[in-house]
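subagent[fold] <- orchestrator: predict structure for attached chain, return tokens only, no commentary.
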Amino acid sequence: MPLIESGKLIDDAWVRLGDDEALPASDVPVIVSLARFHKDRESLVGRNGGLGVFLASNQHPKDIADHLADFALVALDFPKFRDGRGFTVARELREYLGYRGTIRAVGHTIPDQYLFLVRCGVDQVEIAEGKDAGLWAHALTEIDVAYQVSVAGPLSTARLARHASTTGGVSARTETAA
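subagent[fold] -> orchestrator:
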């Protein structure tokens, strides 16, 4: 599947492995299920190519909290575009667990959600084959003010209003979260 990051298509060097597939060379970055990580942790950790874990929509980020340092990438399942659990998991990884690696959205997402994915901490999104990457890039610029607090990007309107009342005004386009 095509992969988009910061509104641009990028090459995907990661290989998603099934639970019974053999490991490729140690310099090939792999994404494994949480079950496989627990089963084969010793052979997976410390790979030169990097290790990623796939969290199904019914798995909680606390399930990997003790192992976050082992993962260069966390792939989050979006089984339906209207299933918001992946947004919550991304935010929890960034805000509460302090994860600084790559977060990838996998599954059914739509361009209208892209800005919100980024605001929750998602770095990369797998998009369906044949979809226009330009629509995804445009989605990042379509809305420039948001009500919700973000882990990245401009201040929310609630924080802007609070800031404006104490400072005499501020521009949504120039102010960034501290």
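orchestrator: received. Logging for downstream: Helices lie at 34-44, 85-96, 114-119, 133-142, 157-167. The mean pLDDT is 84.
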